[in-house]
Amino acid sequence: MFSDARFRAMGSDVHLVVHGSQALVDLAVTRLAALEAAWSRFRPDSEISRLNAGAGRWLEVSAPTALLLQRAVEGWRLTGGAYDPLLLHALQAAGYDRSFEALDPALPAVPPARWWNRPLPPEIEVNGSAARIPAGAGFDPGGIGKGLAADLVTADLMAAGAVGVCVSVGGDVRVRGTAPGGTPWTIAVEHPLAAAPVTLVGLWDGALATSSVLRRVWQAGGRPRHHIIEPDTGVPARTTADLASVIAGDGWLAEVLTKPVLLRPADRRFDNVPSGCAALAVVADGTVAAT
Q1: How far apart are CA 146 and CA 152, in angstroms?
Q2: Is the dihedral of CA 256, 261, 262, 268 positive or negative?
Q3: How far apart are CA 131 and CA 153, in angstroms?
Q4: How far apart are CA 277 and CA 264, in angstroms?
Q5: Confidence of residue 102 (pLDDT cuts 50, 70, 90)
Q6: How many CB atoms lie within 10 A of CB 110?
Q7: Is residue 269 within 8 Å of 280, Cβ to Cβ?
Q8: Sheet strands (E) in the chain
Q9: 251, 166 Cβ separation under 8 angstroms
Q10: CATH number assigned to the domain comprising residue 106
């Protein structure tokens, strides 16, 4: 049997399809709620909020949070810094200082970020169950948190007896096993400017992440803002593409690899896409480029 559920978690729409019982859906809902409670930067009692409030000090963290921090540093290295996990203060300065549902779509002008000299690579340290970020820094779990959450939930469900799983968290999709009909899972990459999808992707085991400057947008001081921050300037980026999608083995990896596709010049946008992964970009006029 296949069980299907749609709900909200991590500030995003979640769609879950499980080749298995309803009990597995309940397991996924519980697991996502626990990860959100640990990782949300909008909950003052979350592990990430405590880590940010105690920047510069060692704090106890759970195993999933330690893994999130380790993957964030790995993502920075793999993307040559295009993905930067320590951009929280820049996001807040741009106006994204509360959950997107609570964000006023037309904010007053905000002052420039009080920028700081970020350690390169980011000095996020993890030692067993203890972690710390540099003093003055702010960690934003953002997209990598959604991708890793999809990975962890998928692994949990397969270990609990699912024959196949598709977990979509805010555009980050992780699949394993068999889809209905005994086929691979088919994932549509939606075109930001057209009704028809850019492409359909079939996967037995892997992830597809999509990031776009046309989603999570608002106005601040009469100027359009979005959540993709340029690491070198600390302000919403002037991207070379409107949308980037990446296929990789894991959701967290696919998510971080979307950042250089959006930020790099057109002739270099796919330079950080490693062997075994694939990527596409949709530019402002609707043209599609792909690896």
Answers
A1: 10
A2: positive
A3: 23
A4: 17
A5: very low
A6: 16
A7: no
A8: 2-9, 12-19, 59-60, 106-107, 125-127, 130-132, 164-169, 172-177, 185-189, 199-203, 206-212, 217-220, 223-226, 243-248, 278-282, 288-290
A9: no
A10: 3.10.520.10
Overall number of domains in the chain = 1
Nearest to 289 by CA among 29, 222, 89, 268: 268
What are 39's two structure tokens? 């990782």
pLDDT, one tens digit per residue, over 250-287 is: 999 999 999 999 999 999 999 999 999 999 999 988 89
Q: Which residue has the higher pLDDT, 226 or 248?
A: 248
Half-sphere CA count of 178, side-chain side, radius 13 A:
10
Q: Which residues pair with 220 in a beta bridge?
A: 107, 223
- The model's confidence at residue 235, banded by pLDDT at 50, 70 and 90, is confident
Question: Phi and psi (nearest 5°) for 65?
Answer: -70, -40
Q: Give ∠ CA 243-152-18 in degrees, rounded to 5.
A: 85
3-class DSSP state for residue 130?
Answer: strand
Whole-model pTM?
0.90
User: Tokens 């749609």 map to which residue?
Assistant: 6
User: Under DSSP, is residue 213 helix (H, G, I), strand (E, B) or coil?
Assistant: coil
Residue 277 is which amino acid? C
The parent domain of residue 34 ranges over 2-290
Which whole number is the average pLDDT over 137-148? 95
Q: Would you put residue 81 in left (φ > 0), alpha (ψ -120 to 50) or beta?
A: left
pLDDT over threshold 80, residue 39:
yes
Q: Does residue 6 register a pLDDT over 80?
A: yes
Contact by Cβ (8 Å): 280, 239 = no
Rg (CA), the chain: 18
For the chain, the average pLDDT equals: 88
